[in-house]
Amino acid sequence: MRRAINNGEIVPFYQPVVNGREGTLRGVEVLARWKQPHGGYISPAAFIPLAEKCGLIVPLTQSLMNQVARQMNAIASKLPEGFHIGINFSASHIILPTFVDECLNYRDSFTRRDLNLVLEVTEREPLNVDESLVQRLNILHENGFVIALDDFGTGYSGLSYLHDLHIDYIKIDHSFVGRVNADPASTRILDCVLDLARKLSISIVAEDVETKEQFDYLNQNNITFQQGYYFYKPVTYIDLVKIILSKPKVKIVVE
């Protein structure tokens, strides 16, 4: 795993985030893939747990940050104003004393200053919210970063995070989106999550949108930002460039 990181075999894939009402591209979520010597890629589900177990998730993320900045700079003039670029950060990375400086250096490595750099904090592992952490994330927020709570409602302390941290977005995944109209109870729970976000003035990104029924429900509930196979699967940098240059205005699914 360490060799793969050092050799640049862990590469970024990009899943587009779209405006569900307009069909326009609004940003991307960065996802890791392990590139194989003879072609093909290994899914993160097969190696991210290994990276975490071996204490390599931080250098893996740092490598992705460097690659993303370099690739986005190459197409900077083609990116829409306010384009979102989201990267997931583990709890073990966020608590490091160097985390703020790493993020500021990451921001400064972009040639465009009007991009929205999103720090996605996953709820799938516990994060010790103390004064130091709050201060750290506040500094990043004050320096232009957008803070998103990923996998909301599926992990440890989502409501606590909303209370203690300055959260700009919550991301709801298949555990919520996939239950749209599945049964009355599931739909009511999702309705409550959406209502909570609105009352707290927190925006929502819907992940794992796969069907027109889900798409219609989200639009009816004014969930503008959406991602999933209904629009695009995660794509290579080259395919992302093609999507951006095509300036899509309608639903396109990249095979």
Automatic annotation (TrEMBL):
Pfam families: EAL
One Gene Ontology molecular-function label: cyclic-guanylate-specific phosphodiesterase activity
The keyword Cell membrane belongs to this UniProt entry's keyword annotation: no
EC number: 3.1.4.52
Xref: SMART domains: EAL (SM00052)
Presence of keyword GTP-binding: no
Domain EAL: start-end pairs: 1-248
Catalysis performed (reactions): 3',3'-c-di-GMP + H2O = 5'-phosphoguanylyl(3'->5')guanosine + H(+)
Keywords assigned: c-di-GMP
SUPFAM superfamilies on file: EAL domain-like
Name of this chain's protein: cyclic-guanylate-specific phosphodiesterase
Organism: Escherichia coli
